[in-house]
């Protein structure tokens, strides 16, 4: 298996940046121009799209603000929750994201040496058995001064928006990212092999033993550094329909933790452990509202407002913890590292009854 890196469109990042710095100009990518052809291939959904550099959006842009984490990504106006969910998972794995975002310190803005900034970035994806280096300029599509696609909670942070732009360039345009599977994006981020488990077809809801075995498999993959995401099947006319439990049909979620949680109080002894999975909604809002959620005033074990295991229990923002998950997608870190991905899918009946 090749370990070399192939330049996408024959664009060499180091050469292009050196020329821009030498000539004191900001990079403008001729292979992915700042016009509608890079946004749409068929459907025009917005008004006037203006491309702006981060320095035109905020006075102090950064690639990362206070590090990188799964909360840095919020889905924009394109149906690519699968990509955003996979990117949220990526943010939890330093060894992986440092492959996808190489030399990130060199790429970041340096306020002490603004003359070294050239408006150019590069990201790497696993394409047809080889790492491929994709160069982009820093011009991002906006409407009314706001980013219309993936964005961070911090207006100063741009790694997620630039990563999405590079991925859109790889696939042709932003609109081409509409609809997909999180497992496919994880493969592109890692070179991993993705395994999909269909919870509906394999009738997990009928067999407690199979559910227990599945959780043990998820736990093993998570503890081995795996990446896990979730999705719920939906008919086309019901896609993105919010169910009564707060989950959304036809939508992908990132799994950010898999653990057995010990309450150690209330009616449950310390020896009682609940199989729990924490998920994050790429939208940045709408979350599970059943047992263990922020809205659960009683709490299944009477622990409302407590966190028996820090970082796992109660939901924060768009993160949520649920008992054994309705649907999931696990994966472990690149095929080149003998990595394995696992993608699980279920239908709405599983989620509604959880």
From TrEMBL:
<dbReference type="Pfam" id="PF00648">
    <property type="entry name" value="Peptidase_C2"/>
</dbReference>
<dbReference type="GO" id="GO:0006508">
    <property type="term" value="P:proteolysis"/>
</dbReference>
<dbReference type="InterPro" id="IPR000169">
    <property type="entry name" value="Pept_cys_AS"/>
</dbReference>
<feature type="active site">
    <location>
        <position position="251"/>
    </location>
</feature>
<dbReference type="InterPro" id="IPR038765">
    <property type="entry name" value="Papain-like_cys_pep_sf"/>
</dbReference>
<keyword id="KW-0788">Thiol protease</keyword>
<feature type="active site">
    <location>
        <position position="81"/>
    </location>
</feature>
<comment type="similarity">
    <text>Belongs to the peptidase C2 family.</text>
</comment>
<protein>
    <submittedName>
        <fullName>Calpain-5</fullName>
    </submittedName>
</protein>
<dbReference type="InterPro" id="IPR022684">
    <property type="entry name" value="Calpain_cysteine_protease"/>
</dbReference>
<feature type="domain" description="Calpain catalytic">
    <location>
        <begin position="26"/>
        <end position="303"/>
    </location>
</feature>
<keyword id="KW-0645">Protease</keyword>
<keyword id="KW-0378">Hydrolase</keyword>
<dbReference type="GO" id="GO:0004198">
    <property type="term" value="F:calcium-dependent cysteine-type endopeptidase activity"/>
</dbReference>
<feature type="region of interest" description="Disordered">
    <location>
        <begin position="289"/>
        <end position="354"/>
    </location>
</feature>
<dbReference type="GO" id="GO:0005737">
    <property type="term" value="C:cytoplasm"/>
</dbReference>
<dbReference type="InterPro" id="IPR001300">
    <property type="entry name" value="Peptidase_C2_calpain_cat"/>
</dbReference>
<feature type="compositionally biased region" description="Acidic residues">
    <location>
        <begin position="344"/>
        <end position="354"/>
    </location>
</feature>
<feature type="active site">
    <location>
        <position position="281"/>
    </location>
</feature>
């Amino acid at each position: 298996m090749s370990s070399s890196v192939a330049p996408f469109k024959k664009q060499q990042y180091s050469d292009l940046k050196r020329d821009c710095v030498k000539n004191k100009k900001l990079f403008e990518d001729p292979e992915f121009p700042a016009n509608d052809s890079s946004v749409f291939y068929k459907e025009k959904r917005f008004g006037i799209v203006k491309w702006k550099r981060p320095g035109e959006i905020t006075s102090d842009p950064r690639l990362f603000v206070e590090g990188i984490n799964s909360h840095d990504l919020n889905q924009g106006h394109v149906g690519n929750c699968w990509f955003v969910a996979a990117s949220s998972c990526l943010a939890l794995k330093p060894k992986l994201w440092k492959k996808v975002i190489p030399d990130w310190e060199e790429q970041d803005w340096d306020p002490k040496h603004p003359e070294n900034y050239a408006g150019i970035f590069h990201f790497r994806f696993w394409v047809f058995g080889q790492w491929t280096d994709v160069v982009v300029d820093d011009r991002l599509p906006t409407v009314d001064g706001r980013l219309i696609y993936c964005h961070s909670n911090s207006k100063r942070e741009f790694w997620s928006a630039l990563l999405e732009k590079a991925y859109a360039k790889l696939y042709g345009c932003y609109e081409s990212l509409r609809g997909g599977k999180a497992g496919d994006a994880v493969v592109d981020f890692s070179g991993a092999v993705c395994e999909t488990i269909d919870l509906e077809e394999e009738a997990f809801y009928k067999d407690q033993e199979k559910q227990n075995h599945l959780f043990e498999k998820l736990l093993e993959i998570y503890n081995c550094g795996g990446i896990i995401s979730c999705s719920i099947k939906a008919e086309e006319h019901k896609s993105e329909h919010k169910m009564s439990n707060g989950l959304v049909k036809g939508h992908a979620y990132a799994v950010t933790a898999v653990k057995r949680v010990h309450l150690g109080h209330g009616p449950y002894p310390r020896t009682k452990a609940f199989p729990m999975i924490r998920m994050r909604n790429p939208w940045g809002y709408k979350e599970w509202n059943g047992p263990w959620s922020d809205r659960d005033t009683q709490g299944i074990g009477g622990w409302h407002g407590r966190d028996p295991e820090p970082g796992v229990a109660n939901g924060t923002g768009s993160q949520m913890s649920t008992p054994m998950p309705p649907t999931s997608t696990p994966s472990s870190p690149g095929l080149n590292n003998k990595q394995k991905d696992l993608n699980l899918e279920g239908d709405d009946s599983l989620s509604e009854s959880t």
